[in-house]
Amino acid sequence: MKSSWLWLVVFVVAVSGIGALIGMNFPPGPWFDALQKPWFQPPNSVFAPVWTILYVMIGIAGWRVFCLEDDPRLRMMWIVQMVLNFLWSPVFFGLETAGGALIVIALLWLVLVSFIRLAWVEERVSAWLFLPYLAWVSFATALNGAIWYLNRGL
């Protein structure tokens, strides 16, 4: 499986496709619309383009980690972050629980930091690819936390 361009396409399409499917199956709905939002809540239209770009970068990093690198720790962290990433929308929008989603996204943030720290030594390109992802997840964690805080009585 070493460095095949076909595998690059597979990673990017799989990550982006699964992310899009989850987004379509767990969209913001009446529950979300009724929540109090913090002042820094962006319009819903911002999320799809941002995630599309991030999913391409995540897919490229996954391809690099699985095809160019032999460290099983990086591979495992990449898989764990994908599971947590894909779990967030079903927990937040599906189960309608901002508190549960806050736990998921906090764990995701920790895994991203760990991935970047390890990749910085072993696979620096993947670490760079994950920096915008970490920035967005940091923002999303603050947003999720603010929504939970503003609506904790619900």
From TrEMBL:
Mode of membrane association: Multi-pass membrane protein
GO biological process terms, semicolon-separated: tetrapyrrole metabolic process
Subcellular location field: Membrane
InterPro entries cross-referenced by the UniProt entry: TspO/MBR-related_sf, TspO_MBR
Principal subcellular localization: membrane
Pfam families attached to this UniProt entry: TspO_MBR
Residues in coiled coil: none
Keywords from the named record: Membrane, Transmembrane, Transmembrane helix
Gene Ontology terms: cellular component: membrane
Membrane-spanning segments: 5-26, 46-66, 78-95, 101-120, 127-150
Mitochondrion found in the keyword field: no
Domain of life: Bacteria
Family statement: Belongs to the TspO/BZRP family.
Protein name as annotated: Tryptophan-rich sensory protein
Organism whose genome encodes this protein: Falsigemmobacter intermedius
Lineage, highest ranks first: Bacteria, Pseudomonadati, Pseudomonadota, Alphaproteobacteria, Rhodobacterales
